[in-house]
Amino acid sequence: MPHTAPIRSHRKPRRSASKIAMRAGVAGGVLGTLAVAGASASANAAEPVTQTLEMPTLTDLSAQVAQSADATQQTAANYQLRAERDAAAANAAKQARLDLADARHKAAAAKKKAAAEAARRAAAERATRSAPRMALTAATTMGGGAGVSVDASAGSSTATGSAAAIVSFVKAQLGKAYVSGATGPSAYDCSGLVQTAFKQVGVSLPRVSQDQSTVGTSVSLSNLQPGDILYWGSAGSAYHVAVYVGDGMFVGAQNPSSGVVEKPLSYDPPTGAVRVL
Question: Which of 207, 226, 267, 277 is deepest in the core (most CB within 10 A)?
């Protein structure tokens, strides 16, 4: 390197005045802007910001509260009504079960009572039939097997007059049905047949067997005549009646299975007899 070459200086070169002035202007502008912004911020901070919120009026709140209260009350009323209905249904079911049990108990008691009454009546019938059976046996022996002993002074076993008409009528009804309460012409019960038979000869008899067993004059079973009324049971409380037709035979409406039949006295010995003609 030649000794005459210039040596670089270590000192910084001076900035030109124009650059310095420009930089100063920029700085001043920035500072001015900051000052304006600061002033604006101060002004904004000093002035309060107002924000409008829409709040529900008192009238609207009252209406909403009232509607809610009405809905709650209606729901409670519905629950109460349902509870009352459920309770009523449960009580009705319970009462129905109690009524059914009571009805069954009463039916069983009535059935038991009816069975006891039937047994009592059967025993009474057997007791009342035992004595007449013995009397008829003796009468048969005395009458030579005719089935009944007829007093010669009282007539014979051959019917005459009104008695013959009655005998003829009851025999004409043989085979007809037994119907409780019937008085002919196609069906009869026991007292209905007797009453209708005597009506043929102008004699008016009571309707039921109990009363028919007390009309006329009581006669002995050993002194029967055609047309006499036979009864079963005691006089005044007889449960069956028929007409004696002679020769130890009677005609009566026996029961629903037999209807009107002709049977010997030994078939079902009567308790007693009355004479109306």
Answer: 226
Exposed, middle or buried: residue 217 (CB in 10 Å: 0-12, 13-18, 19+)?
A: exposed
At 215, list the tokens: 């009309």
Q: How far apart are CA 198 and CA 241, in angstroms?
A: 13
| Spatial separation of the C-alpha atoms in residues 183 and 190, rounded to whole Å | 9
Identify which has the larger pLDDT, 147 or 201: 201
Measured CA distances, 48 to 40, 44, 166 (Å): 14, 8, 136
The alpha carbon dihedral of 239, 163, 157, 146 has a sign of negative
Nearest to 209 by CA among 162, 119, 270, 261: 270
Q: pLDDT tens for residues 173-205?
A: 999 999 999 999 999 999 999 999 999 999 999
Residue 141, pLDDT score:
39
Is residue 229 within 8 A of residue 213, CB to CB? The reply is: yes
User: What structural domains does the chain harbor?
Assistant: 125-275 (3.90.1720.10)
**Position 259 pLDDT exceeds 80:** yes
DSSP code for 260: E
Contacts 24+ apart (CB under 8 A), 125-132: 125/232, 125/233, 125/239, 128/232, 128/233, 128/234, 128/271, 129/232, 129/268, 129/269, 129/271, 132/221, 132/269, 132/270, 132/271, 132/272
